TrEMBL record:
The keyword Iron-sulfur does not apply. Keywords: Oxidoreductase. One of its GO terms (molecular function) is oxidoreductase activity, acting on the aldehyde or oxo group of donors, NAD or NADP as acceptor. This is 2,5-dioxovalerate dehydrogenase. It comes from the Bacteria. It comes from Niabella ginsenosidivorans. Gene3D superfamilies: Aldehyde Dehydrogenase, Chain A, domain 1, Aldehyde Dehydrogenase, Chain A, domain 2.
Length: 541
């Protein structure tokens, strides 16, 4: 497939703008040949207006029709074959094996949402039948379900060019919810975006979706703000830096009609190592932790950036083992020049601070361009608590190990942390007396708590929570991974005393969708027996 560099607006391509840019190949230290056109303000307006028009038709389609669309997207992405993987690897420096796995995750995610749509229970249908004989006043018939918000702006992520970008979790969950999507493509992998956007459009045409159901634009930062502030956009999905995420958040909440921004931003994902685990599982934890820190050049939002433990003979022995493990890991190419520069600045700031000890000994002369060496440093709890910079995320294969003098200092370190995506515990039965107060703290700090594992694997499933208190996300109640991600893009509507034939199928007496519903407080798929409703009494309770 040819990559033209145009924007995708509905089923059309458009390149009316005069400003262009090219993708950079970090592994080769060179720019790729295709020029990508920055959309004009007119094209931005066109894309959102098309999405608003498409919404009126798309929201009325059956869940089976939406599911067929998502399944078709997955097929079209797979049909891109090696062309997609090779282009994505060139633009990001990520290895083919990693991207092949990420493509499968992306398609599995789309298919999981398709199954969710067919199952139907996600609409959370609730029915409280009328009680005409209730005293002192009759109870009305009230039926509640979830409906789509409207067009969603999705911002592609730099570190996951497939699973968190054009056809990633935000797009999949928004489309499943019944919302058209306008993607702001990530400038680090525009060719990858073009290939995936074309696949989505082909799937939309094959399944007779309304034009405007999907668009993809290359935008400047100023235009990205304009996209969020467009009155046709009803929600925003974002994965990236805290700086950009907060800019989008402020743009959305200062609109005449504020809209939700679901931004996944920064986290250091603390790992707490207890004495019993350090003494009995030293080699296992050292190997697993070094692998988690350096996986994908440390460019995972769930990378364990802080390791916290009490100082002891066991902790000192663990540090020796961990240093051996992490020093065997080779440098890896980072996603972009900007990310590499930020990583270098972050670890240099650590290393130039008095009281910091480095466990890693990189050989800088052997690096290829934009390759980052793993870095592990140790610091006392006292020094950590005295300088906020140590709790800031350093994006890349680096971790800071905090040695606390006692249990109280360890808890103070945990209390000082901002909101996190994850927190991890390694402990044994002998540690359980100390475990509960630590668990009580991290429950308030993180969205996912791991026992005996590592945070860098984020399973796509019904129970996953990928989101936590600020600043890990802008809304701790939401997740960007798993089927619960759909709830970001819907809102509840209650129908009171409606005639059965005017209700949505999910709420009709016969339950034609055969979905699980909460009827008078009990979950059931059974039909509802009609109760005569006394409409229009106008009486208040």
């Amino acid at each position: 497939m040819n990559i033209t560099g145009a924007n995708f607006i509905g089923f059309k391509s458009s390149a009316a703008g005069s400003s262009t840019f090219r993708a950079f190949a970090p592994a080769k230290d060179e720019y790729l040949p295709e020029a990508f056109t920055i959309a004009t303000e007119k094209e931005l307006q066109w894309a959102v207006n098309e999405a608003a028009r498409a919404f009126q038709a798309y929201r009325a389609l059956s869940y089976d029709r939406r599911a067929a669309f998502l399944d078709a997207i997955a097929r079209e992405i797979m049909d891109l074959g090696n062309v997609l993987i090779e282009r994505c690897s060139a633009e990001t420096g990520l290895p083919v094996g990693r991207l092949t796995g990420e493509r499968k995750r992306t398609c599995d995610q789309l298919q999981l949402f398709a199954k969710l749509l067919r199952d139907g229970w996600w609409v959370d249908a609730r029915i409280d039948k009328a009680q005409p004989e209730r005293q002192p006043l009759p109870a009305p018939d009230i039926r509640r379900m979830l409906v789509p918000l409207g067009p969603v702006a999705v911002f592609g992520a730099g570190n996951f060019p497939l699973a968190f970008s054009t056809a990633g979790g935000d797009t999949a969950s928004a489309l499943a919810a019944g919302c058209p999507v306008v993607v702001k493509s990530h400038p680090s992998h525009p060719g990858t975006n073009a290939l995936v956007a074309s696949a989505i459009i082909r799937a939309a045409q094959q399944t007779a979706m309304p034009e405007g159901i999907f668009s993809s634009l290359s935008l400047s930062h100023e235009q990205a703000i304009q996209l969020v502030q467009h009155p046709g956009i009803k929600a925003v999905g974002f994965t990236g830096s805290r700086r950009v995420g907060m800019a989008l958040f402020h743009a959305a909440v200062t609109r005449a009609e504020p809209v939700p921004v679901y931004a996944e931003m920064s986290a250091v994902n603390p790992v707490i190592l207890f004495e019993g685990a350090l003494r009995t599982q030293k080699e296992k934890i050292a190997k697993g932790l070094s692998g988690s820190v350096t996986m994908g050049a440390g460019q995972f939002c769930t990378k364990p950036g802080l390791v916290i433990m009490k100082e002891s003979n066991a902790s000192k022995s663990f540090l020796e083992e961990f240093a051996k493990c992490i020093n065997t890991v080779l440098p890896a190419t980072m996603l972009s020049k900007a990310i590499y520069s930020a990583y270098s600045a972050g670890v240099t700031s650590w290393q130039n601070t008095a009281g910091i000890t480095s466990l890693t000994t990189p050989e800088e002369s052997s690096y290829e361009p934009y390759q980052a060496p793993p870095v592990a440093c140790t610091v006392s709890g006292r020094i950590f608590l005295a300088d906020k910079k140590f709790s800031d995320e350093v994006f890349g294969p680096a971790t800071l190990i905090i040695h606390c003098k006692n249990e109280e200092e360890l808890k103070n370190v945990l209390q000082s942390l901002e909101g996190q995506l994850t927190a991890t515990i390694h402990a044994t039965a002998e540690d359980e007396e100390d475990l509960k107060p630590v668990t009580d703290i991290i429950i308030q700090k993180a969205g996912r708590i791991i026992y005996g594992g590592y945070p860098t694997g984020v399973e796509v499933c019904h129970a996953m929570q990928h989101g936590g208190p600020f600043p890990s996300t802008t809304d701790a109640r939401s997740t960007s991974v798993g089927t619960a991600a759909i709830y970001r893009f819907v809102r509840p509507v209650a129908y009171q005393d409606f005639p059965d034939h005017l209700l949505p199928e999910a709420l009709q007496n016969a339950n034609p969708l055969n979905i699980l519903r909460l009827v008078d407080g009990n979950w059931t798929k059974d039909p509802v027996q009609q109760v005569e409703v006394n409409r229009g009494s106008g009486k208040d309770i």
